[in-house]
Design goal:
By secondary structure, the protein is of the alpha/beta class. Helices cover about 45% and strands about 10% of the residues. It comes from Maribacter algarum.
Length: about 300
């Protein structure tokens, strides 16, 4: 499949049964809801999510299930977040063999690599596969920034063509666009900065709260790209308190509570994560309940 790095791409949560096995029934329900809403791709194994708790075979199962559910309509993107280059290369190979259409790759985990080491890490992985690659640039959470100059080197490889831009510096979208034009696709990765990023020229949105609110997320994107900023902004302002649940160490628990509220997920997490409790649980539920009470009526965004 030819991968177009644009549109809304949910970084979907992993669904678990109470016995800590994969809940493929609820997983399928959520993926179908995303596809029905008009998302443009599915991202598996979110690095700030529960991917680090998954076994390699569990990741392969999720890829195969998503490929089957997507029926070739949208690309399936697997996240590669590993500590060693050879392990990352093996993970990329597994993703390819199990049907993934593209990869989202992070810098080395745990070790704070230098710029030279980071570029070489990406190049080694990209050279091992012909899958299209999106680099995940998130120095806030991972302490390694992929700078504009580093992208100059990385774009020498034909299959590195996109970035998930999560520096939280809106200006960086302009820097990247000014340097590379259309050579580099830019997808925002920060939910509460999504609309601003789209107005700055981002091509798409790797989203979190889309897992619970797929239609609203796609509507914002389509309105923004259709030149209807006022309507997009109105929905986005409603969405902002919910979107802020994505920028938290407990984003997985937050999003899963929202998925329960909209009927397309369960609250179950894999340890060491635990379900939210006490005042924090009350706070998150209040945000979700208020969002549901004031949920906007959407335009026919699929007709744009």
């Amino acid at each position: 499949m030819k991968v177009e790095w644009k549109g809304v791409m949910p970084a979907v949560t992993t669904k678990f049964n109470e016995d800590d096995t994969l809940d493929l029934i609820m997983f399928a329900k959520n993926i179908r809801a995303q596809i029905d809403a008009g998302v443009h791709g599915i991202v598996l194994g979110g690095s700030l999510g529960e991917a680090s708790t998954l076994l390699a075979e569990e990741k392969n199962v999720l890829i195969r299930e998503t490929v089957q559910l997507s029926e070739g309509k949208i690309p399936v993107v697997m996240t590669i977040a590993e500590q060693a280059t050879k392990v990352a290369i093996a993970a990329a190979s597994d993703a390819h063999e199990n049907g993934a259409d593209a990869l989202m790759i992070l810098p080395p985990m745990r070790y704070k690599s230098t710029d030279i080491e980071t570029v070489q890490y990406f190049k080694d992985i990209a050279s091992s596969t012909d899958l299209p690659i999106m680099i995940y640039n998130n120095p806030v959470d991972y302490k390694i920034e992929v700078t504009v100059d580093m992208f100059e080197e990385l774009l020498e490889l034909d299959n590195i063509t996109a970035v998930k831009e999560s520096t939280r510096d809106i200006i960086n979208i302009g820097r990247l666009r000014n340097r590379f034009g259309e050579r580099l696709s830019i997808l925002t990765g920060v939910d509460p900065l999504a609309l601003e990023s789209l107005f700055m020229g981002a091509d798409g949105w790797v989203a979190g709260l889309v897992c619970a609110f797929p239609e609203e997320t796609v509507a914002i994107y389509e309105l923004a790209k259709a030149g209807r900023p006022k309507e997009a902004t109105e929905i986005y302002r409603w969405f902002l308190p919910l979107l802020e649940l994505d920028i938290s160490p407990q984003l997985v628990q937050n999003i899963k509570l929202a998925e329960v509220a909209t009927g397309i997920g369960t609250e179950t997490v894999r340890k060491p994560r635990l379900n939210l409790s006490g005042d924090e649980r009350k706070r998150v539920l209040k945000v979700i309940e208020e969002g549901l009470k004031t949920r906007p009526i959407l335009p026919d965004y699929k007709s744009f």
